[in-house]
Design brief:
Elements lengths: L4 H13 L18 H7 L5 H12 L18 H15 L4
Helix pairs in contact: 3-4
């Protein structure tokens, strides 16, 4: 997948405005630059097969050299997050 010009504009704007101290906070200003379309393009969700396809699609876009996983699980229990990370490693990345 190649980024279309509108996607590239979003990428460039977010890169320029990104503040790692505000990452994943409601107060971040760079979050306002991320369009719904871009979330749909970049978010990973679904079964391991679905996510494997999504990783391949994102990686094929060019310019992506890492994927950062922020598991969204109910509650604050690290064990649940660890299970999601292990599932991703074992069922997605190991099979690419």
């Amino acid at each position: 997948m190649k980024w279309n010009p509108e996607d590239q504009v979003v990428i460039d704007q977010v890169r320029a405005a990104y503040d790692s101290y505000q990452h994943a906070t409601a107060a971040s200003t760079h979050r306002l630059l991320v369009t719904d379309r871009f979330v749909d393009l970049m978010a990973l969700a679904g079964t391991p097969d679905d996510v494997r396809e999504q990783v391949q699609r994102v990686a094929s876009g060019g310019g992506v050299n890492r994927i950062i996983l922020l598991p969204q699980v109910p509650g604050q229990d690290f064990v649940q997050r660890e299970q999601v990370l292990r599932l991703f490693a074992d069922e997605v990345m190991a099979r690419l």
